[in-house]
Each structure stands twice: as structure tokens, then as C-alpha cells.
Write a structure and sequence with these properties.
The complex is a heterodimer. Chain A is an alpha+beta fold. Chain A contains eight helices and five strands; from the N terminus they run ααααααβββββαα. Chain B is mainly alpha-helical. Chain B is built from eleven helices and two strands, in the order H-H-H-H-H-H-E-E-H-H-H-H-H. Classes of the chains: A alpha+beta, B mainly alpha. The interface of A and B includes residues 78, 127, 147 and 161 of A.
């Protein structure tokens, strides 16, 4: 990734954000451009000779900028989201964001020396799938797919599949187990999520 | 089969190499097919696509595997990646992967994948010659990747259902179909039969070392699933099943959840609501 590519990517991101997005405004190309930006940012974090704490902070920024965090959080909470108050949903969304950033941000250490390449995008159902290939040092390349939608009002990704393992389902299972352990106490869950990691 | 990075598996094959006759092979295929045919979920009986009627036993095995990992595999893997220089460890892993290729070719053929069989054969020949007995992997640099196949996958191609989820002692997460496949794969590699006695154990030892290296290199990821998640059993189960189905190419678009249409993830919970 050269500096010029990166700048070009950033500029197209600005352009992308400026497009008023109706329900069907997002094209496969638009979805691919979004993932280009995400991947450029991720590659930058991987390459940067910074501490793990700095990488986690960077990852949280990427997550907030490019992911539809409220939708992901609500899905992770599952049916329990129905009985939660608006304040609990907000609190959970913020706590979930911190938890995800720490959990996945810490994985960056294993990515050092690696890179991600964006492949193609295609429309699936009401959204777009953008496939990428991750190259880790000394590992066979593997597939990472981003699902992108603009139904939140802006183009954002709402799920990631790493070799078929998807974040929505994995986190819903995990959050569900956490809630079970706390006898369904959402406030306790919110409290604890912020302290994990 | 590669152990992917995001994959919790205390995956150790201490199975002994043994001399086998054709009769024994046929017997094990029958056993495998019999086993695989035994469990299919009823309609609506597998929420989230998880069919786990043996959960109690599986959870016991999971605790055993966790104890084994904590007490033996994890420390051994840390030691291995710390003591052995990575280029050496990588060569050992290459060597193990190369020796397993003839077994993969057999499964490519059983699945009717002639292209895969040819590519793997070429890869095996290339790495054996130019990679000095498979210690190097120049084939990958030329883009000749391994086309993965195992007997569990062969059973899938033959139309055998996945069966129930099982967590095997020592071997880790599996399904009834994959467990049967593992049994058969003890015999599918022609090299196990062709090599003389001391040599045939080198591959096995290298394969154990290769698994230690994977466990060591992705230690944090595996740890996060096994020791940091709220319910490591259900996380391992979900990750294994999703990854395995992806490997087998079963992932069509229907596996894609739409959280905008289904914000609470209820689609699977009540199949009668539609």
C-alpha cells in the first residue's frame, strides 16, 4: 500500500460519505471502496511499530468509523434486546464497542508482517459481500469476507467472516453465555463488559 | 487439513501407525458409514444449525481437553516456539504437510476432483525434489497451493450427513461424519504403508511438532477461546462447525444473517412463526 493509494482511498471515502444514501444507493463498487478503506487502515495499524494499547485504540477507531456498531451490538444481545430499556441498549452498545475493540485489537500482534488484499464485491440479498484475502507470515492465505450495507443510513460493515466463522453469531453466543452467567442481568453484563481484557 | 488461526483445537493425533490389510480398511469404512448415518436432527431440532444431542458427554470431554491443553499442550507449544528457531520449526511443519499430501491426493480422487489430485501430486513432487524432501515449500511461492481434502470431506461429497457435533477426547471438536473420516484417514495415506519402519514415524513426529507450532504461534487466539470466553464449550463448537462447513464449501448465501431484517436473531429460534 503506497501513500498515494492510501490518500486516494481516503479521498474516495470522503466522497463516499458525502453521497446521500437511499435504501438502494449502495453499489457493489461502493461496498468495495468502503472495504478498501477499512483494509488500508487495518494494514496501517499492522505495519505501525506501536504498542499493543495503541493498536487497540486504533482498532476501536476503525470499528466505530466503518462498522454499524448499534446493529451489531443489538444482534449480539439477541432476544434479550427486546426487554432492555433504551438506556440499557445505549449502555450495552458502548460497552460492546470497548469489549470488541480489546478482544479483536489484541489479535493484531499475530498479524504483524501480514497484509490483507481486497478481492471482489457482489450483491447478496439486501447487502453486499466483499471478499478479501489475508496473508499472514508463514500461513496459507485465508479468506476474510465483509458484509456491507447502508441501511443504517451510511455504508457500514455489519459482519465479518474469517474462514467462515462469523462475528455476529460468535458474539451472540458469547454475549448469551455471559448473560446466562449473570442470570440475565443486563446491567451487570454492561458493567463487566467494560472491564474485560 | 490446515489448522486455521482462529481455531480452538487441542488437536493431537497420537494414533499409531500400523500394518493393515484390505479387510480392515473395508471394515473401517463400514464402521464410518454406519456411524455417520446415525444422527440427523428432526425438523426444527437444530437451532442455529447446531445438532448436539451428546452435549453432556461432549462437555466432559471438553473439560478433559482443556485440562490437557493447560497442563501439557499449551506449555509444550510455548516451549517449542521459544526454543526452536522459527525457520527450523517451519521446515518441520513443511515436512509434515508434504508427507500428508499423498493421503490428500487419495481423498481428492475419491471426491472425483481430478484437478485437485493433479495439483497436489505436482506440489508433492515439486516440494520433495526442490524443497529437499519437503523441508522447503517452493511450490507455494509459485502459487501451487494445497487443495485440501480429507475423508470427512469425502463422506460429505458422497452425501453422508454431518451427523451430531462431538467433542472427542484429545482430538477436540468434530462431527460424527468427521470423526468417522479421521478413522479412515489413518489408512488413506499410501506413504504409511510404503515407508519402512523408522522412517514412517518421522512424519508422525513432525506432524505433532507442526501442531505444537500452530498452538504456540496462535497462542493468544486459542487462549481467548479456551480460557477467556464465558462458555468455551459453546464457542469452540460454534467456531468449529462454521469453519468446517466453510471448508467443505457448504456456505451458501442462506448462511448469511441479515440483522436489519432480523435484529434479534430470532429466525432460527422459532421455525413455526413464519
Amino acid at each position: 500500500m503506497t501513500r498515494r493509494n492510501l490518500l486516494g482511498g481516503l479521498m474516495s471515502g470522503v466522497a463516499l460519505a458525502a453521497i446521500p444514501s437511499g435504501a438502494w444507493a449502495l453499489s457493489a463498487d461502493g461496498a468495495k471502496r468502503l472495504v478498501d478503506l477499512i483494509v488500508a487502515d487495518i494494514n496501517k495499524v499492522i505495519e505501525a511499530p506501536t504498542s499493543e494499547a495503541a493498536k487497540i485504540a486504533e482498532f476501536e477507531k476503525i470499528f466505530v468509523r466503518y462498522a454499524d456498531v448499534p446493529t451489531i451490538a443489538r444482534y449480539a444481545l439477541g432476544v434479550d434486546a427486546r426487554r432492555a430499556s433504551a438506556a440499557q441498549i445505549n449502555g450495552f452498545t458502548r460497552a460492546f464497542q470497548v469489549y470488541v475493540s480489546r478482544k479483536y485489537g489484541r489479535r493484531f500482534r499475530e498479524f504483524i508482517g501480514g497484509r490483507i488484499e481486497v478481492q471482489e464485491a457482489r450483491a447478496v440479498k439486501n447487502f453486499h459481500e466483499v471478499k478479501t484475502i489475508a496473508h499472514l507470515r508463514g500461513e496459507a492465505p485465508f479468506e476474510v469476507a465483509f458484509l456491507v450495507s447502508d441501511r443504517s443510513g451510511r455504508p457500514k460493515f455489519f459482519n465479518i467472516f474469517i474462514e467462515g466463522v462469523n462475528m455476529l453469531l460468535t458474539e451472540r453466543t458469547e454475549i448469551g453465555s455471559m448473560l446466562d452467567r449473570r442470570r440475565g442481568d443486563i446491567d451487570a453484563l454492561i458493567q463487566d463488559l467494560q472491564n474485560i481484557g | 487439513m490446515r489448522s486455521p488461526a482462529f481455531f480452538p483445537q487441542a488437536d493431537f493425533s497420537f494414533h499409531r501407525a500400523r500394518k493393515t490389510g484390505t479387510a480392515r480398511f473395508v471394515l473401517s469404512v463400514c464402521l464410518a458409514l454406519g456411524l455417520s448415518a446415525c444422527s440427523v436432527p428432526g425438523p426444527g431440532g437444530a437451532p442455529d444449525g447446531i445438532h448436539d444431542p451428546y452435549e453432556q458427554t461432549n462437555r466432559k470431554n471438553h473439560e478433559l481437553n482443556r485440562a490437557l491443553d493447560r497442563g501439557l499442550v499449551r506449555p509444550a507449544s510455548k516451549g517449542y516456539v521459544t526454543i526452536v528457531p522459527d525457520p527450523v520449526a517451519e521446515s518441520v511443519s513443511n515436512f509434515a504437510a508434504n508427507l500428508s499430501l499423498p493421503g490428500t491426493v487419495v481423498n481428492n480422487l475419491l471426491q472425483g476432483d481430478l484437478g485437485g489430485a493433479l495439483q497436489n501430486t505436482y506440489r508433492f513432487a515439486f516440494n520433495t525434489v526442490f524443497g529437499i524432501g519437503g523441508l522447503g515449500d517452493p511450490a507455494s511461492e509459485l502459487g501451487i497451493a494445497e487443495v485440501e481434502a480429507d475423508f470427512g470431506g469425502t463422506l460429505h461429497v458422497w452425501g453422508v450427513p454431518e451427523g451430531a457435533y462431538v467433542e472427542l477426547p484429545v482430538l477436540g471438536p468434530s462431527t460424527e461424519r468427521d470423526a468417522a473420516g479421521r478413522v479412515v484417514d489413518l489408512f488413506t495415506n499410501p506413504l504409511t504403508h510404503a515407508l519402512p519402519k523408522p522412517e514412517k514415524y518421522y512424519g508422525r513426529a513432525a506432524s505433532v511438532a507442526s501442531k505444537l507450532r500452530s498452538r504456540g504461534r496462535f497462542s493468544d487466539t486459542v487462549d481467548s477461546v479456551l480460557y477467556e470466553s464465558a462458555d468455551s464449550y459453546s464457542q469452540s463448537r460454534l467456531i468449529y462447525l462454521q469453519n468446517r462447513r466453510f471448508e467443505l464449501g457448504g456456505g451458501d448465501d442462506d448462511t448469511y444473517i441479515d440483522p436489519y431484517d432480523d435484529p434479534y436473531g430470532e429466525l432460527y429460534d422459532d421455525p413455526y412463526s413464519e
